[in-house]
Amino acid sequence: MSSKAKKRVVLPTRPAPPTVEQILEDVRGAPPQDPVFTALAPEDPPDPSPRAEDSEIQQEQIYQQSQAYVAMNDRLRLAGDALRQTFDGLRQAGQRLEQDISQATAATS
């Protein structure tokens, strides 16, 4: 029997989603050690001493990314200009070719 011939199973309707008040009541009633609150909490607080070092490293990484972005932007701009020039050259060559073809066709007629 093909899958088209099988009867379609009708699922029961879904219950209505909880209201905002019900959600807030549920969250307020949950204990602090509930997995919802502890799943994303860091297990050990980070040491405050390496923070300055991490901040400097992060700033250097952001600076390097910014430099790479500016360099890539310049390269893309130059590539766009070159592409525009190539397009214009091809368009002019196409126009000349059409003119040559029309002249050759007129000459043979």
TrEMBL record:
Domain of life according to the entry: Eukaryota
Per the UniProt record, one Pfam family is UPF0449
Q: Which portions of the sequence form the region Disordered?
A: 1-61
> PANTHER family from the xrefs?
UPF0449 PROTEIN C19ORF25
The family note in this entry says: Belongs to the UPF0449 family.
Q: What is the official name of this protein in its record?
A: UPF0449 protein C19orf25 homolog
Give the originating organism: Apodemus speciosus
